[in-house]
Amino acid sequence: MTIIRLDASFTRWDELLALILTAFASMNGRIDPPSSALSLTAEALAAKAEAEIGHVAIDNGRLTGCLFLRPEADCLYVGKLAVLPSAQGKGLGRRLLDIAEETASALGLPALRLETRIELTDNHAVFAAWGFSRTAEKAHPGFARTTFIEMRKVLAPQINPA
Fold this sequence. Notes:
This protein is α+β, with helices and mostly antiparallel strands. It has 4 helices and 7 strands.
């Protein structure tokens, strides 16, 4: 298993889109509004990789996971964290989040932030086990009820050797 940062040499956008759609397929019909992943295109992913920090996991030549990171004022936003169902439960999601933590540290950002749908309680539990805490409940535009929660993980401060 290799995890690489997306750069101009990456060309497998259709495969990356298929990975995200497959990983998020279990949400279809469970969450409202539907996932923004359903409106992604290969071109949109390429643009996202230019604007954000993207990584993909490759196992025996096959894309098996990804995440996109966006620096914010006080944290690093983790988005489109996706792992193929056949690769779930083997530590890949945790490895991808380790990269997010390393990236935040390198950028001098003290925390990670992510959003997960209110209906996806299994995800809430996984993120909590990985050190994230619920920090807000929010609603998509046009919804009067909570549709997603925000979770943050405060990272250990970096100790600079004297």
